[in-house]
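[Discussion] Sanity-checking designs against the backbone

I'm trying to build intuition for which residues belong where. Below is a structure token string of 318 positions. I'd appreciate it if someone posts a full sequence so I can compare it with mine line by line.
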């Protein structure tokens, strides 16, 4: 389940949890005790479901309900081709702030590691360095298969990112495909017929947003163009400037994130175009900066607060 589903209901009986999981009570009990007779994928799914429905896990954690199993929590940010790992990135800052608030509430120390793994070897090197500490991985990058391998021996790991098929690790995030699918009709309903998807599509989150965009434009029979750009305000501005220079006609932009959308707004206004009269734009993330951009940016909101609160709790439970 994604972070948006957390806290929608509470289940306190093992048999009710088993019914939700579609398993026997014996299977659920063994999964919560990390019994190796239950495969990793099933254990991960049941642990995730237990936290989604606020099932009492004290006896499985070996302590009082809600108490973390460790006094420290490590955070690692993988390197990705489409974006930097700079802590100045607005969405990353907001996510870190929310995780920090949750950790402080539980009197947990945060350790932001200097590691920025980009492959399986580097990822394993990082996990060897943190021994038994719980870990939050902010973004999957291109490490999905490597994270699946790590999950075979690490229970106390949570990944912020997209849910994928054949996934063995616990992830928290939003439905990126649905986000792309919903953002695009917003522009089409305003009469936009020549749409641009701005941003790179490397990595599962971005790929799913683009897939939603493509399905929506195909269903509406409108023009769709991909303008590739790293997830940086200045790089996005240059990408749209180049698109304008080629004389390509477009009247709507779905940006892969808000930072890219703000870059597009800046260059379009400098080029003498009116927003939204000439070009309508939708971003993604709903970062605080959106509230100060003029004209105000329409954006797809992610539940950062709920997801950030969920991530440390799941780390301590898994």
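Best answer:
Here's mine. Compare freely.
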């Amino acid at each position: 389940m994604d972070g948006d589903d957390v806290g929608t209901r509470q289940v306190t009986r093992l048999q009710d949890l088993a019914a939700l999981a579609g398993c026997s009570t014996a299977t659920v009990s063994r999964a919560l005790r990390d019994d190796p007779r239950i495969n990793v994928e099933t254990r991960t799914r049941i642990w995730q479901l237990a936290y989604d429905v606020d099932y009492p896990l004290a006896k499985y954690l070996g302590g009082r309900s809600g108490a973390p199993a460790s006094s420290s929590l490590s955070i690692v940010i993988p390197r990705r081709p489409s974006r930097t790992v700079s802590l100045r990135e607005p969405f990353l800052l907001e996510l870190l702030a929310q995780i920090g608030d949750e950790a402080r509430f539980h009197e947990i120390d945060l350790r932001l590691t200097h590691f920025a793994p980009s492959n399986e070897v580097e990822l394993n090197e990082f996990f060897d360095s943190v021994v038994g500490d719980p870990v939050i991985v902010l973004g999957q990058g291109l490490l999905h298969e490597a994270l699946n391998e790590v999950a075979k021996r690490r229970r106390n790991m949570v990944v912020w990112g997209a849910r994928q098929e054949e996934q063995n690790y616990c992830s928290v995030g939003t439905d990126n495909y649905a986000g792309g699918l919903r953002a695009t009709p917003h522009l089409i309903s305003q009469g936009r017929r020549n749409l641009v998807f701005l941003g790179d599509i490397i990595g599962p989150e971005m790929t799913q947003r683009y897939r939603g965009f493509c399905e929506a434009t195909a269903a509406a029979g409108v023009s769709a163009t991909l303008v590739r750009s790293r997830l940086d305000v200045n790089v996005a501005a240059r990408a749209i400037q180049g698109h304008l220079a080629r004389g390509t006609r477009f009247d709507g932009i779905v940006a892969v994130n808000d930072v890219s959308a703000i870059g597009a707004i800046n260059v379009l206004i400098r080029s003498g175009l009116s927003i939204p009269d000439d070009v309508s734009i939708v971003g993604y993330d709903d970062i605080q900066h959106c509230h100060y951009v003029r004209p105000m940016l329409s954006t797809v909101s992610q539940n950062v607060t709920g997801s950030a609160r969920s991530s440390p709790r799941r780390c301590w439970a898994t």
